């Protein structure tokens, strides 16, 4: 058995009684099921979902204060007031800044943009930047993707005589800033959709300012919407759908340069944005000032765009190396520290810009919310990022101890924060108390939502193409996850470090390849002829012009007990097979020499001292099969490793026949006394026996009282009691050992597994 790393939850239809209202819809049963799970049951709803209608975007006028904000901007342009666009340093902030800057410039404004430096200024508006803007003549500031928590900075702007328009989408806190206008879906009672990204809000404002639908800004809206991981439903789905098309045909020099660097050809997908374009834009603000990324999207010069794109790509490679180094240090801290509900790690010198990525890696590895902090000794503060697990709302729970933070903001699964160094321990204690009150141990595991169980024979290129009609995928519209349960035809580790797993499934002349990136260590937990359940996304593997459906595995589990056959391997090292999270026990005759990687018991261990275990490693054959049966029944292992080696096989050595026993006894009757030291060779040559056979026959006769043996000399006992050979325990023991070898050593894998299964009736009880 092998437990899954994540909790597998199976998606149910929103209403099991709902059926298709129009059977004429020409879609496969799998796609229909996926649509039903999304609450889509009619032809009209299907059409709207598969082909989003750009006319279904909501009217920007429904955002509170948008008319006031629009009028103020037009007034500033009319009076030639200087306008400052104040953005954020991530991909959403960069694309929001670009949308607003292009809009204001199109209207003929005197404007500029500003993005704070993550390292020297931190997140969001700051007083010094506002004062500098005032000194530079700016009297109107428009924030994009930031500002909803900037109560103090709004007051500073008001005192300076700067009108502040805030456009944001982050969670509002207890008090709202006293700004000239706030454009925020969650602060707008009548706005129908509350989950826009920062760039979505900026796009709405742009539409209001321009007086027409800004189709030319859709490509930037797609970048921020997808990269910021907002739910891809409703307006976000429409913006992403049309924005991806705009990215595919873009004439923007910066985007064309980015696509070249990322080797993106043809249609741009949400994965291209999420894994290639977005990370590179984010990398700029993580390592230096993000203004370079805005300059890339604003330039009309092809050569300048190429140079900036190359520099951004270099920064992204540098970012990867920095992340790798910090992750190694952070993982070591976690592994050597006490296990807690919430991970908090801090160190001086860590790059603040990548701590969110590091936190995400820790969450995936340890199944715990993680806060990763850079220590600033000069101010006695720590600053960093946090990521959470699905079962724990990081934002709301941190808000319960908001007084311990100097700055805090974010949402349920991610946050940024600054607080005094002396508060690290108390925040750790408080969050541990909160999370342990709310969650059970099982809640900490990551969750995989499985949409359907599917057969290998159902998976083909057409099905994958049909599934892709549900794109763009993202939060609230995740890429479907399927479960396959089958016995793999082959399994192997691949990659330069053997850290990936490749499985091959075959069913009715249909083959399917499964690839599990980073799952190479699970190879040792796969046993022959055992069904494996894998969960993953379906995709297309294209190689040398050949296209074939595959499953990209995310998790794996094995529900049946497993037998791992290592028979005949002398001095087997079991350390690669040890799962430290399980109870591992080694069984032998007299104990064996090995490192303390598993508990040890022997066949004559008092059964009353034994308890249930997970894995049993058998290193010696038992003298009596009953002993092995008893130990299995008491310890109840769910996995067994057959690790025994037989050097001098009794099963392969012919057992002396009754005629051979009679011949040897006749010889004794003739000679009365037989000195084996002198006669052994003669007997071996005469009968073709080996030395062991002669000694064995002699010992059986001795045990039965037919002879006496002194110093290798056999004396016949006159008139011994009549006994059958079967009465000799030595005779019986040899028969038993040979039979044991036949059952446990020379059997086929299937025969051996069947024998063990017959001893494991407790498994049926466990499964019930």
TrEMBL record:
Signal peptide: none annotated. Residues 453-555 form the RecJ OB domain. Residues 342-437 form the DHHA1 domain. Residues 562-756 form the Single-stranded-DNA-specific exonuclease RecJ C-terminal domain. Residues 82-225 form the DDH domain. It comes from the Bacteria. InterPro entries: DDH_dom (IPR001667), DHH_sf (IPR038763), DHHA1_dom (IPR003156), RecJ (IPR004610), RecJ_C (IPR018779), RecJ_OB (IPR041122), SSDNA_exonuclease_RecJ (IPR051673). GO terms for biological process: DNA recombination; DNA repair. It comes from Virgibacillus profundi. GO terms for molecular function: 5'-3' exonuclease activity; nucleic acid binding. Keywords: Exonuclease, Hydrolase, Nuclease. Belongs to the RecJ family. This is Single-stranded-DNA-specific exonuclease RecJ.
């Amino acid at each position: 058995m092998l437990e899954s790393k994540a909790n597998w939850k199976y998606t149910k239809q929103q209403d099991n009684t709902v059926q298709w209202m129009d059977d004429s819809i020409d879609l496969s049963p799998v796609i229909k099921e996926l649509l039903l799970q999304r609450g889509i049951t009619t032809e009209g709803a299907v059409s709207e979902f598969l082909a989003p209608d750009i006319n279904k975007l909501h009217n920007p006028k429904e955002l509170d204060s948008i008319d006031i904000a629009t009028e103020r901007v037009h007034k500033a342009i009319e009076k030639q007031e200087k306008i400052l666009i104040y953005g954020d340093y991530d991909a959403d902030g960069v694309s929001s800044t670009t949308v607003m800057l292009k809009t204001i410039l199109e209207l003929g404004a005197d404007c500029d943009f500003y993005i704070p430096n993550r390292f020297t200024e931190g997140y969001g508006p700051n007083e010094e930047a506002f004062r500098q803007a005032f000194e530079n003549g700016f009297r109107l500031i428009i924030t994009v993707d930031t500002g909803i928590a900037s109560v103090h900075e709004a007051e500073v702007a008001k005192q300076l005589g700067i009108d502040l328009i805030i456009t944001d989408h982050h969670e509002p806190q207890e008090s709202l800033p006293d700004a000239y206008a706030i454009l925020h879906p969650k602060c707008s009672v009548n706005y129908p959709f509350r989950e826009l990204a920062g760039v979505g809000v900026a796009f709405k404002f742009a539409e209001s300012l321009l007086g027409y639908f800004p189709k030319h800004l859709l490509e930037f809206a797609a970048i921020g919407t997808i990269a910021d991981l907002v739910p891809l439903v409703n307006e976000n789905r429409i913006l992403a759908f049309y924005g991806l098309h705009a990215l595919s045909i873009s004439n923007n020099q910066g985007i064309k340069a980015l696509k070249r660097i990322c080797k993106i050809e043809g249609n741009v997908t949400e994965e291209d944005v999420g894994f290639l374009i977005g990370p590179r834009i984010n990398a700029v603000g993580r390592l230096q000032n993000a203004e370079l990324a805005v300059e890339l999207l604003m330039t009309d010069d092809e050569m300048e765009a190429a140079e900036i794109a190359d520099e951004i790509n270099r920064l992204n490679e540098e970012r990867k190396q920095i992340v790798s180094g910090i992750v190694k240090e952070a993982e070591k801290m976690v592994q050597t520290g006490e296990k807690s509900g919430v991970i908090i790690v801090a160190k001086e010198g860590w790059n603040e810009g990548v701590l969110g990525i590091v936190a995400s890696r820790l969450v995936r590895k340890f199944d715990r919310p993680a806060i990763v902090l850079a220590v600033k000794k000069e101010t006695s503060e720590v600053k960093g990022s946090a990521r959470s697990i699905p079962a724990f709302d990081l934002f709301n729970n941190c808000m319960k101890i908001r007084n311990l933070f100097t700055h805090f903001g974010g949402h349920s699964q991610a946050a940024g924060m600054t607080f005094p160094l002396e508060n690290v321990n108390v925040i750790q204690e408080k969050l541990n108390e909160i999370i342990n009150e709310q969650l059970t141990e099982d809640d900490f595991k990551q969750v995989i939502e499985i949409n359907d169980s599917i057969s290998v024979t159902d998976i083909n290129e057409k099905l994958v193409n049909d599934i892709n009609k549900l794109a763009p995928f993202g939060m609230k519209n995740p890429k479907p996850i399927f479960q396959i349960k089958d016995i793999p035809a082959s399994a192997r580790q691949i990659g330069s470090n053997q850290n990936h797993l490749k499985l091959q499934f075959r069913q009715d002349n249909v083959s399917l390849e499964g690839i599990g990136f980073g799952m190479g260590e699970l190879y040792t937990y796969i046993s022959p002829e055992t069904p494996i359940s894998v969960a993953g996304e379906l995709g297309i593997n294209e190689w040398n012009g050949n296209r074939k459906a595959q499953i990209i595995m995310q998790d794996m589990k094995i529900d049946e007990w497993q037998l791992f056959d290592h028979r005949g391997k002398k001095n087997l090292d079991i350390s690669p097979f040890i799962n430290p999270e399980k109870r591992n026990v080694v069984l032998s005759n007299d104990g064996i020499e090995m490192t303390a990687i598993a508990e040890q018991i022997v066949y004559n261990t008092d059964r009353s001292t034994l308890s249930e275990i997970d894995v049993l490693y058998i290193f010696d054959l038992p003298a009596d099969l009953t002993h092995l049966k008893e130990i299995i029944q008491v310890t109840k292992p769910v996995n067994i490793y057959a690790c025994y080696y037989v050097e001098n096989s009794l099963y392969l050595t012919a057992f002396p026949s009754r005629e051979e026993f009679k011949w040897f006894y006749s010889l004794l009757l003739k000679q009365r006394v037989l000195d084996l030291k002198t006669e052994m060779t003669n007997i071996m040559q005469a009968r073709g026996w080996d030395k062991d056979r002669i000694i064995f026959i002699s010992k059986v006769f001795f045990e039965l009282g037919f002879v006496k043996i002194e110093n290798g000399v056999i004396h016949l006992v006159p008139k011994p009691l009549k006994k059958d050979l079967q009465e000799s325990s030595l005779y019986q023991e040899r028969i038993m050992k040979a039979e044991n070898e036949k059952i446990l050593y020379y059997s086929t894998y299937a025969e051996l597994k069947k024998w063990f299964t017959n001893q494991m009736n407790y498994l049926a009880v466990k499964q019930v």
